[in-house]
Every structure is written in structure tokens, then in C-alpha cells.
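[Discussion] Sanity-checking designs against the backbone

I'm trying to build intuition for which residues belong where. Below is a C-alpha cell string of 439 positions. I'd appreciate it if someone posts a full sequence so I can compare it with mine line by line.
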């Protein structure tokens, strides 16, 4: 990475955008607070569904309900964000998401909330998030100069990981002390920071030559991504990791019935992968020196699968299980960095937005498909066997992908210019790890 920094500091993230770019600082700070509230709800909702039903299949159904709007809206959301004032669009989505969290508060204080009502709220929130995410990420290049864009994107990744660590831990404590209504109420209150941040920045009007959203533009991006096998291989290997090796939907049953750790243990299970991912993101400055990025992807995903299988085998020690989850999180964030490097440099600039929207669709829908698979398998063979078998199947899938897509293993990144280095640095944040979405 050509940043001018020397010594040990070159491994750490650059905070210049927070110091020098006022609008970016406001956007980042607002998301830092509201992101924690979002992570609280993200853990509390499946917990509530499991407590109400005692069924892992109900958790799978919740995940399926959240997946549908992602599949429906993700590909078109990027083109919409290019055609309207992004700040105004973000204000609209934040109002809608806050209303969804407020509805969850009301349902939590209801003696016997109907399951269908929780599913409806989850569906609406997922749809709003699928619009919010590309609008937010595409706003960053308008708020910082080009030379600070890689640092700004990396700081966004750090923001997400911090929320992923703090949010689940707070959720576990809140559920154990003040209940689900208190956990959802914190999420509602956290939106105030997002509104303050958005109102403090200038409008982000669409560019004069912005492409009109439509089916033709989406189809062109899909054709390009599917015709480039090295790009396609990154999508396939990530789906392998998430579908077979994603145990998040089983955290409630593992915390309550396997580890007997209660709501606090649930929070720790949710936070452990993010702790590893946070450390991986903080120390990711070295990745730009890796040339064989395709092999790096293969190794990172294999480590993820092995760590998940070992997590499932560690039911005799809660601390050891948390350690393996942290290792998995670190491997996942590095996989995201290397996969995104390949995608950023293989796609031409005029198609990069649409290819990135496909990437977002993969990294957000894959974990939800994994949650469905894990919960369904747990209903048949038990939660622990579901986790262990999923990790093993992930490793087998890595070998299959490497065989079917030899282009991935052969792919070499030659950082021939500073712009290429910048693209590799920006890749730190283009694929949110462990759970995929930043909603």
C-alpha cells in the first residue's frame, strides 16, 4: 500500500478522514452509534422467536422472511441511489427502520405477540436495509477526496466491527436485565445519532450524467460478472463458506441448551466472531503485499470452515468455543479483503458499481441461507452436529471450488500502481464479514 507511512504504523488504519473531512465524520459518527443499536436488535429478534416457539425451524423461517426482500431489492437499490439525493434517501430509510424497531418494542410488551407480526416487521426492516446499505456506501466517495477514500472505506469496516462486538454483548445484558422491550428501545434511541449525523451533512445530489435505473443496466452487470470466471469463483466460494459454515441462527439454542450460558452467553457467542474480525481489520495493512490473492482466499475460507467445526466440537469448554469463533471471524474478514481485491481490480470502473451490488447481494444473502441450512439441519440431527457437519462441508466445498475454478488459485495481484494499491486497500470494507450485512 502506497500511503507514505513507515514502520509498525503501516499495519494500522488511517484516521485522516475523521480528522479532515467534516461530512464524513458526521456520517461515520452517526452510524457508529446507530450501528450498535442495529446489532442489538439483530440478536434479540431471533432470540425472541426461539423463546416464543422453542423451534429452530421458526428461526429458519424468520431468516427466510428476511432473505426475500434482499433478493427482491438489492440489485436495483444501487441504481436508485445513483438517481436521487442520497442524504434524503438515507433519512427516509432511517425513519422507516426506526419505526420498525419501535414496532418491536410494542410487540415485546405484548403478553403473547403473534409470530406473524414479528415476521412482517422483519420483512419490512430487511427491505429498508437493502436500500439503505448501497446508498450509504456510495455516499462515502462524495464526502472525502480520492486520496483519502481507501482510508474512509476501511474506517467504515472498523465501524461495523466495533458495533458487531459491542452490540451483541449489550444485547445479552439487556435481555437478561430489562428484557426484550428494553433491548429494542435502545435501538430506537440509537437512531437519534444517525439523524443528527445525516442532518449535519450537505445534500448528496445525483450527478448530472447519472445512469437511469432499470433492468437493462442490471442485466449488463450480471452478464459481465458471470462471464468472468475469477469474479464468479469469489461469489461461489463465499456462498460455500456462508451456506455450510454459518452457525449464527443456532446461537440461541447453543447458548440456552448446549452451553447453558443464558442470555449473557448468547451475547458472547454473537460478539466472539466480531472480535476476531475486528482484530483482523485493525491489522490488515499487510494484505496489499500478498500477490497470490486467489490462493489467499482459498486458505482463509478453509481456516473459517475448520474453526467452525472445532467450535462445534468444543461444547465442553465455553471459553475455547469462543476462541474458535474469534479465529473464524479473523479468517472471514481476511477472506473478504482478498475477495474484494479481486473484484475491485477485475471489474472496469464503468461496471464496478453494478458488480459490487451483486457482491453485496451475495455477502448479505449467503449468511441468511446459511442460517436456514443450519437451523433446518439442527432440527434433524441436533444443533452441535449441524455446526460440526457444516464446518466440514465448508472445507470440502473449498476443495471443490478450487478444482472447478482453477483460475482462482492461479490469480495473481500485481500492484503496479498507486491506484491499484488504493483499490486493494478499499477492499477491506466492501464485503462485510460474519453475517454479511451492515443493516
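Best answer:
Here's mine. Compare freely.
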Amino acid at each position: 500500500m502506497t500511503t507514505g507511512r513507515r514502520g509498525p504504523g503501516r499495519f494500522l488504519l488511517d484516521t485522516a478522514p475523521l480528522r479532515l473531512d467534516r461530512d464524513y465524520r458526521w456520517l461515520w459518527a452517526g452510524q457508529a452509534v446507530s450501528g450498535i443499536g442495529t446489532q442489538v436488535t439483530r440478536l434479540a429478534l431471533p432470540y425472541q422467536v426461539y423463546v416464543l416457539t422453542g423451534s429452530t425451524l421458526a428461526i429458519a423461517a424468520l431468516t427466510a422472511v428476511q432473505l426475500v426482500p434482499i433478493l427482491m431489492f438489492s440489485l436495483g437499490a444501487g441504481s436508485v441511489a445513483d438517481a436521487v439525493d442520497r442524504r434524503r434517501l438515507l433519512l427516509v430509510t432511517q425513519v422507516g427502520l426506526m419505526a420498525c424497531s419501535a414496532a418491536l418494542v410494542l410487540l415485546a410488551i405484548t403478553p403473547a405477540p403473534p409470530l406473524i407480526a414479528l415476521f412482517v416487521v422483519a420483512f419490512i426492516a430487511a427491505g429498508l436495509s437493502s436500500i439503505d446499505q448501497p446508498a450509504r456506501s456510495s455516499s462515502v466517495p462524495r464526502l472525502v477526496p480520492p486520496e483519502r477514500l481507501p482510508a474512509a472505506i476501511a474506517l467504515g469496516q472498523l465501524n461495523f466491527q466495533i458495533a458487531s462486538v459491542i452490540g451483541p454483548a449489550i444485547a445479552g445484558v439487556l435481555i437478561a436485565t430489562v428484557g426484550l422491550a428494553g433491548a429494542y428501545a435502545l435501538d430506537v434511541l440509537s437512531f437519534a445519532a444517525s439523524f443528527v449525523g445525516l442532518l449535519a451533512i450537505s445534500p448528496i445530489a445525483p450527478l448530472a450524467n447519472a445512469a437511469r435505473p432499470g433492468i437493462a443496466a442490471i442485466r449488463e452487470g450480471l452478464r459481465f460478472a458471470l462471464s468472468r470466471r475469477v469474479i464468479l469463483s469469489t461469489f461461489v466460494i463465499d456462498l460455500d463458506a456462508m451456506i455450510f459454515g454459518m452457525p449464527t441462527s443456532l446461537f440461541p439454542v447453543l447458548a440456552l441448551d448446549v452451553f447453558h450460558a443464558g442470555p449473557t452467553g448468547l451475547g458472547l457467542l454473537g460478539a466472539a466472531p466480531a472480535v476476531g474480525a475486528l482484530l483482523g481489520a485493525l491489522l490488515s495493512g499487510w494484505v496489499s503485499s500478498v500477490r497470490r490473492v486467489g490462493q489467499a482466499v482459498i486458505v482463509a475460507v478453509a481456516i473459517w470452515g475448520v474453526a467452525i467445526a472445532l467450535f462445534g466440537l468444543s461444547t465442553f469448554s465455553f471459553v475455547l468455543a469462543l476462541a474458535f469463533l474469534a479465529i473464524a471471524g479473523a479468517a472471514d474478514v481476511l477472506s473478504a479483503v482478498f475477495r474484494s481485491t479481486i473484484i475491485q481490480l477485475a471489474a472496469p470502473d464503468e461496471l464496478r458499481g453494478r458488480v459490487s451490488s451483486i457482491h453485496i447481494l451475495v455477502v448479505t444473502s449467503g449468511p441468511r441461507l446459511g442460517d436456514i441450512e443450519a437451523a433446518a439441519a439442527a432440527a434433524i440431527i441436533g444443533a452441535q452436529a449441524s455446526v460440526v457437519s457444516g464446518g466440514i462441508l465448508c472445507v470440502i466445498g473449498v476443495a471443490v471450488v478450487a478444482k472447478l475454478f482453477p483460475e482462482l488459485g492461479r490469480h495473481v495481484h500485481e500492484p503496479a500502481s498507486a491506484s491499484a494499491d488504493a483499490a486493494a486497500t478499499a477492499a477491506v470494507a466492501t464485503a462485510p464479514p460474519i453475517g454479511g450485512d451492515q443493516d
